[in-house]
Design brief:
The protein is an alpha/beta fold. The chain has helices spanning 8-12, 24-28, 34-37, 65-79, 89-95, 118-129, 138-143, 183-191, 198-205, 215-223, 240-250, and strands at residues 20-22, 83-85, 106-108, 132-137, 159-165, 208-212, 229-234. The chain is globular and about 55 Å long. 41% of the residues are buried.
């Protein structure tokens, strides 16, 4: 089923378990939205384009969920290679990515299967379609880490996993649970930090791991040919609520 690019409702609220496909035909229809998302991007340099989030305050290293999503979206669009999108904040961050004149083939799990099997879905897409990128949050990554185990007799697909690691459930920062009056209980009940060692997990399953520490390093890494690797991009989730408020005011 085609999933219109920029539609988080279609990505997460549909109860079907199969991945949704965002193809170039449906994504191309979004060209008419260029004025509200930053204009016609045909001649823009996608590597530095943050779309409608360009004016937001962000960390000194230039890394947050929005900037990572925009960079990955632009890189996969330029390469015309598949992109699999994790639930929760990654797919919402892509809602705010630049509207380009072309879009990558994009897939997302839906409804009740939104967090289950996301890595497995991406592996399947990569086996069927070739070099593929997965954009995912740390909790979704950890939830399906077992799918990283690929037997020695199995073909290892070219899958680049970009993990936006904010150590917990950042989506709750923008919901009612993230209001200041709930701050005392927020981290343990909703933030749920794990402190997981993603490099150790990658090593245990035989995957290459790289820690990304700046926006420039991210752009360089995702411009390389896609191979089986995990790019861990650590970001803060402390600013999420303020950013969401700022985005809502832009509407």
């Amino acid at each position: 089923l085609p999933l219109p690019a920029g539609s988080q409702a279609a990505a997460e609220d549909d109860a079907l378990g199969s991945p949704a496909r965002i193809d170039n035909a449906s994504a191309g229809a979004l060209d008419d939205l260029g004025a509200t998302a930053g204009g016609d991007r045909a001649g823009a340099d996608p590597r530095g384009d943050l779309g409608s989030t360009a004016g937001l305050d962000r960390a000194a290293d230039g890394l947050d969920g929005h900037s990572v999503a925009a960079a990955v979206w632009s890189a996969t669009a330029r390469a015309q290679q598949p992109l699999v999108i994790g639930s929760s904040h990654p797919i919402r961050d892509l809602d705010l990515a630049p509207v380009l004149t072309t879009a990558p083939p994009a897939y997302a799990n839906r409804g009740l299967a939104g967090i289950d099997g996301t890595i497995a879905t991406a592996l399947g897409v990569a086996l069927a379609s070739g070099p593929t990128t997965l954009l995912v949050g740390d909790l979704t990554f950890l939830h399906d880490a077992g799918s990283l185990l690929i037997g020695p007799l199995e073909r290892r697909p070219d899958l680049r996993i970009v993990v936006v690691n904010d150590d917990g459930g950042s989506i709750f920062h923008i919901l009612e649970q993230g209001a200041p009056e709930h701050a005392d209980a927020f981290e343990r009940i909703f933030g749920t930090p794990t402190g997981a060692n993603l490099a150790g997990i990658a090593a245990g399953y035989g995957w290459r791991h790289r820690r990304i520490t700046s926006h420039a390093q991210l752009i360089e890494a995702i411009a390389e040919p896609v191979t089986a690797e995990i790019l861990e991009v650590r970001v803060s989730r402390a600013h999420r609520r303020a950013q969401a408020t700022a985005v809502n005011k832009m509407a």
